[in-house]
Queue: 4 jobs
Job 1
Amino acid sequence: MYSDASNSYHGFLRASNGTITPFDIPGAGTGKHQGVQAPLSINTNGEITGAYKDASDVYHGFIRLADGTINSFDAPGAGTSIYQGTKPISINAAGAVTGGYLDASYLYHGFMRPSTGPILTFDAPGAGGTGSYKGLGNGTEPLSINTLGVVAGNYTDASGARHGFVRAVSGAIKEFNAPGTGTAGIGINAAGASAGAYGDATTLLHGFVRAPNGTITTFDIPGAAAGLLIGGTGGFSINTAGFSINTAGQVTGTYSDASDVFHGFVLTPTTTTLSSSLNPSIYGQVVTLTAVVTSIAGAPANGETVTFMEGTKALGTGTLSGGSASLTISTLKAGTNVIKAVYGSGDSNFLGSTSKSVSQVVSKATTKTALASSLNPSNVGQAVTFTARVAPQFSGTVTGTVTFYDGTTALKTVALSGGVAKCATSSLTKGGHTITATYSGSTSFDGSSTSLTQTVN
């Protein structure tokens, strides 16, 4: 919209060739701050929706068709006093429109105007609060509609907390909340992914993307910082806020820097793929985990970081080079290790992503036990120390216990220390003795055994 010298508002359409066509809505007021208040959305057919304010400062909705025909409408239940009325926000390719209306108590409610048929009104379950003069955000506020007719928006509950919602074509409404104190779903694409902003405990806004399966990824743009409070007491400050998401999943929005200067951004979604160089593997064996990060805009910049996670434990990080990052590791525990690679978005061009899980199966490693005598042959009553050394198949320190036997008689069980266990005895009788050292094994290593013949004179 634009305002004239009298501060009356008018709409305009700028064609792809740069031609600007101004327009006004029949019935729009011509006084100060009246007229075509908000041509807010245009679809692929060139149809525009928005709101206009009449001479009594009441809002009404309109659709301007590609041929210039204008149809005005009001949602059922819309108030007719100053600053009340109907406020369309978004129009999809089929010509369906969504938005909100202010009732006689200045409380917001949602509506959906299909391309054919009556206007449907709705409220998110749990929506409440008290209407405020000029309708400052209490109730249900739809903000976007995709090509299928799925609506995204937010609502305020009776305690004043804000929540996001998605309204399916069937009319079913699902609430969602990003981490923080308030969530505003703002844009939704054809796949059902939505973008928006959420507030933290200090009322600072951050961006989020909600996947169609409900998974929420939060983000902030590097360089974003807490700024001036917007709206005074109880207001908010913008760090990062996502406003719109396209069919490719790219998100656009705004952020403020430390000097309270606003900047725009476009974030491109990424896909992270994880692979293992050796699966299954053996405990102590070297395995290289490789993450590849891709997007429709190419790979993220070299030097950014990918974190390799086993559950909530970070195994280590890798540095991207040509879209690939690797971690070489030999300490994965025996059993099944469920591993993911997380690209955390290190710049202002790409959204972070998490790979699908890879189940790395690690078998126990074999061991080899060696046994030595400190004195062989020995004499009756003479002290002899038997030393067992347990070596792993690949790497790592073997833990557990070794039991020393004289024939079938257990002499002693000793815990390994640094892979070594010792047993001293002076009770061996005259003759030949078969001394055996048996390593019992552990969660990481298989057991092993060896023997020697001790001669006692």
Job 2
Amino acid sequence: MMDSLSSLVLVVLTLQAAVSSCSSLDLSEQPSNRRLLQDRNPDLLHRDHLPSVGSSTFPRSDQPRNDANGTPHSSSSSSSQSHEVHAKKESSKKGSKKWLYTVVIPVAAGVLLAGIAWMFSPCRKRSDATIGPWKTGLSGQLQKAFVSGVPQLQRSELERACEDFSNIVASHPYYTVYKGTLSSGVEIAVVSTTIKSSKDWSKHGEDCFRKKIDSLSRINHKNFINLLGFCEEEDPFTRVMVLEYAPNGTLYENLHDESFDHIDWRSRMRIIMGVAYCIQHMHELSPAKVHPDLHSSAMFLSEDSAAKIADLSVWQEVVSEGKMPRTNGDHQEPISAGLAGNVYSFGILLLEIISGKLPYSENEGSLVNLALGCIIKGRSIASLLDPKLESHKENELDLICQIILDCIQSDPKKRPSMREITTRLREAIAISPDAATPRLSPLWWAELEVLSPVEAT
């Protein structure tokens, strides 16, 4: 916008300079005409009946005059000279004005109108009307492609990828997850609302849907289930988000479902660090992003068992009509309370990972109360260690137990920030952010293929 205004100002200044130059040219003709008169007949300047240059009154051509010897003669010669000078002056004026009116003004006006039309053209892409692109981790080609925001996809494309929406991998009261496969073989997750008619889709639901697209597109972390695109159509009614697919199920399933492979200590530490890095990243965005439902069912594992955090809360928000408590920049709850709530949830998640126990069970009750009971009885939380673990590192376990106690404090103000937690964890657990992310991620190839039909249009 600033570039456009600068160009507009430049055009206006150019036009003004052109008009000024023509005006100055007009004025400069006067002294040149005087010099012309002086060169041709110096005696004329001393005669009383000769008007000053620029006067509108001239003597009559038939009036007799006397020469230097007193002989009367006609003044036609001097009058002819003055008329010639005046004619040249008028011709010069008309020429400069003609150049001004026929060349300068039309060209400048054309450029000015073209600039204004371009500035207000509906086809022009405005940065404040689009969703910002992912800022890091993208090649130059992908950054260029994402400059227009998250791509909107066609239902027909998703139907082909998901085998006519028959490949269901998860079903919930508020949403359904389909597994899709692109032509390159890359797998994607297609998450759709369970609402089947636009009559049941409220303005509140549409606002939630669009805000979540905006929010998810800004997170951009390799330990997060990233947004690839979305689809919204009215016939048939469709509201869908296309996400990266994590093939190894949820963390909850891997910890508590016997049909899943056992997770060893090192893999659990890598999951902890990946989650910590991602939540810290979210909290330090501007504005900060609070995960609305941080628990093991929202954690997915990649092919090499790296943590991938998902946010699927929007589908419940759509049907809640504002009844759900919000935690991210909403007036119902300050952002600081949401950040502290994430820290508390992270403490419970740590406890669930090292113990292999459910966050709540009918037999043992709340896992937090179980941990606090150990402290009251003079035992360490380490006594809750998962017996299935064949080995572990004592220094890492001790540090995690200390962090758990800090995270689950009843006073939110006494809980540490995610940056403090990540710093402390890394002192004992030597897993860098790069080591905590998936080694082989098909995400970028999925982006390229999803974007191909969008770029073609």
Job 3
Amino acid sequence: MTPDQTPNLDYKMSSTTMAIPSTVPADAADVPAVHHDPEAVGDPPPVPNVPRSRVALAGIVGMTLVAGMFFAGWTPKTRQDKVLHADAEKIRTALPRVQTTLPKQSPAETTALLPGDVQAIEETTIYPRTTGYVKRWLVDLGDRVQEGQLLAEISTPEIDAQLQQARATLTESEAMLERAIASAKLAEINLRRIRSLREQNASPQQQLDEAEGTAAVATANVRVAEATINANKADLLRIEELQSFSKIVAPFRGRITARHIDVGQLVTPGNAASQALFQIARTNVVRVFLNVPQMYAFSVKQGLPAEIIVREKPESEFVGKVVHTASAIDPTTRTLLTEVQISNEDNALLIGSYVQVQLHVHRDNPPLLIPASALMFNADGTKVAVVGAKNKVAIRDVTVEGDFGAQVGIAKGIGAGDQVVVNPGDRMADGLAVSVDVPQVAMSQMAAGR
């Protein structure tokens, strides 16, 4: 095919153009339609021409919205900051608020409840006094015994042998005394004979001197024999006493509270804990020792009734009385040691039990009661804060007489009409101006009065 015969590739747009629905907006109808050749590459379509008035209007609307949103958030925040600053300034400049109370006068007659332990009126541990083996024991734990009753026997073979030897030695010394007496008699007879011969010049002086010396020695031998007998008797008595210790008897009427021996056990004299045989206590009367605080000490006298409270026996009543006091305050605990005795024939009170003793005492100068929270402690001692004239605080030194839990007794430092701060804080200082809160109870009473 020759160039002249090249096919005609130009197509008629009118014959091949398909109908396409129009998507052009109505306000763009003025814009002339532009037809592009599919295979032709040309310039992009021109940007639509938007009026400047519309752009300015949109900008103004946007800036107005942003400004409105800013002021909508900023105005409440500013108002809140002002309120907070005002409240902070009010708190900073406001007076400290405190609650006060008037001291309460404690009654002159009061009840003191004090702890104590029940002890036997008599109690002792029995130890061996001789060496031997336990032959038998006749009483056990909890048995009642009478004074002098046999409790146990100890076999003492060594003591028995020593006793026989001591008796034989005593017999021998008695025979020696008899021989010394006979020798003394013979020497005296011989002396009288030689002295008679000497008076007749029938005997030399030397023989007389020897006879006198022999008589004196014989007399001295008699005294030695008598002393030997006394020493042997004392030794025999000692050994017999040791042998008597083989029988263990009760020193007083009571109850066996412990037994520490068994048959065949070796025991030796001593008071070590390992050498104890029995423990015995007399419990028909028991006693309780109390440490009475100084605030009650001057009211505790002999004969003062005392009620014994046993937690495990709330329905039982035990009444005793004060029988002894130490008559001196312990400087360490500031208490008075007091003894209370209680009849216990039925053994209802067990020794060693924890009890509480209730004493009804009279005080000539009862303390003022304030809340324990009102106390202030520092290096200078115990203090309280009192609100005085013009609502100014005065810090006062006080003497605490007693601690009653939520309340404390003040012996001196405040008066019955002082307004005591209930809960003083660290800011509390002498001369500080405060604002006093009226308690709810007082407010209700004032309202009722109106």
Job 4
Amino acid sequence: MNKIVFTTFFIFMVLLISPLAYADRGVFPIIDADVYGPGQKAIIAWNGEIERLILSTDLYSDREVKALEVIPFPSKPKVEAGSFSVFEVIQRLMKEKAPRAPIEKTVFEIVFHEKIGAHDVTIVKAENKEELINFMFNYVSEFNVSRSLFIRGETVLEDYLNRGFYYWVFDLIDLNFEAGSVEPLVYEFQSPYLYYPMKISSLAEGSTKITLYLITSQPITKNDLPAKMNLAKYFPFNQSIQFQLSKEELNEIDEKFSNLFASFNNEFQPWLTVVKYEGELNDLDFDLEIFKTQIQCRSIKVATDKNQYKLGEKINITVNFTHLMPGCFEIQILHFHLVNLEIYDSADRLIQSWSWNVNNDIYRVVSWKPEEAGNYTIKAASFWNGEKLEVEDKLTINVSNLTKPALTFNLKIFIYGAITFIMGAIIGFEAAYLFFKRKKKIEEPKNL
């Protein structure tokens, strides 16, 4: 069995919000031979800041070859040995949580052909294509490799570098013509989004099946995935393989997964979602990148009973602050929420204010009597630890001065029109009266 040199980028993420990801590898053949990636299996955990990836890939060649497999990372990863047992736990949980009906098995079975032995891992930081290719060429120079074999992958490597992927992992493993599952490695790294490199695998040839087990804080939907990826289904129900994990089940899969979610409350249960890609490797023209969705977990509303008031009239203002919306959770550290209520005049000058420090929902009604007529803006807002704005709401009211009533333009027009009409009617009536009176006097002598 010959040695194969390859770089693997593997991500295991448990996603805070509900993302899924795959870690993919690019394979450079060390001799002119076809290299296949018939199957990849990964568990990905991401908490919004740190990603933990457990990856196992099936690789084989049409002959015994040397090959360089490359995986890019957005930040420097920590690497440690993994275990196949995590996939066995996932498989058992999928069967246990399958729809309650007589079915013999789920769609996806985790089958490992062969356990490959020790890994020889090297992590490299390279910020330009020439540095990276020179390292790769030197790394396999003992195998009398032609530099021309790296030309095909230059475009893909440059694409990752242009997107800021400067960390590359190289792993020396055994590979032959019999497909086998590469013993898992665990990668942990900083990432603001759930990430699994797919495009790098387009450097290999053949067809593949990629199965990713995503553990996230929110369920993953089809809209979260690239167009060529799909949610895995239970057969024959056409139901997505997706369910929540208890703290015990999460710990059974991997104890360090539990650490990723340690800041959540005791009732929190992350979601496990299974996603897949089946097709040609040269069709992998995308990476899986799922960004954290912005969930509004707090709410504040300010209200008055009407928006028009008379000067001297008391105004009742209601503030309703919801600390946590349904489905939300909060990190368990000491903190408070400052709720402010403020009134500003039309010149944006602060007229009156109230504030409360809270750690739960509040409902407050305060009274205020304006001293001057005009327009006023009432604002309510909450601040994390009194500093970071969380949510806000505002409304505008009008206070009028009734001691000097001001006629509106439309009212003035109406009054002027009414006066004109009445005067016209009086003049018309008087003219008609005089006309008929004169006519009567003219007709009287004729009657005589």
